[in-house]
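Re: How this chain folds, sequence and tokenised backbone to follow

Filed under: protein folding, tokenised backbone structure, sequence and structure records.

Contents: The amino acid chain and a row of whole-number tokens, matched residue for residue.

Body of memo: The sequence and its backbone structure tokens, given next.
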Amino acid sequence: MTAGVGLALSADMDIPLGKPTDYPERYDPSLLAPIDRQPARAAMGLDGPLPFVGEDVWNAYEFSWLGTSGLPRVAVLQIRVPADSPRIVESKSMKLYLNGFAQARFGAAQAVTEVLERDLAGGFGAPVSVRLLGLDAVPVPSAHLPGQSLDGLDVAIETYRRDPGRLRIAEPDITVEETLHTHLFRSLCPVTSQPDWASLLVRYRGPAIDHESLLEYFVSFRTHQGFHETTVEQIFLDLKAECRCERLLIAGYFLRRGGIDINPFRSDPGEAWPELRLIRQ
């Protein structure tokens, strides 16, 4: 999605992002603000069946509720949303909604999970998976992504707007399988223009991609405006088109904002989300 498309999509949205907001003191599922995926996908040329599978994995590190005695309970909340759900939920509205649980009483953790699954299925327009992780079960952050880092390459950067034309195939007649990553990724929120920082993981099979050009391409998103989910989908489409990947997986590990990180991944069928939590998350 180009910057212009991102802003056009947000113009008529009734969402709390970028607006002064009072934080709720009670549970209120009406706070969830869904956004249709299709307009952004149509802007990328996706009007038929999706050319990828995947999930959006949300981790909420500031989630709490009250037991029946009034004693607070805490957990890390993980929400897994299928990529073919018709809607996303705007992240600030998710934060406001989840904050409303802080003063709500539940008899058991399972009751919390059931309420979350019901409300979030309504927001995303599809069943979602919800897990409450005790603090001793939360994955330990890792500073490492699998595969080869692109970040030490000596690359001269010329553009900071998405430019798939930077991508080049190094060896068109040689098929390789590679896993690559970068921690240098940044894009912008299409509503507030605040920076969204991320690490990206790429796993592909196909003609050998020129590593320098791939890093240039990733850096070209530095002033690109798009939601996390749409940005990862755009990367998947660009690499498929420009690099002729036979198989491809793109995973984005975005830094948390307001206690929530979002980790979209898109791939050809048969792949699973590389379940990692990075040191910056």
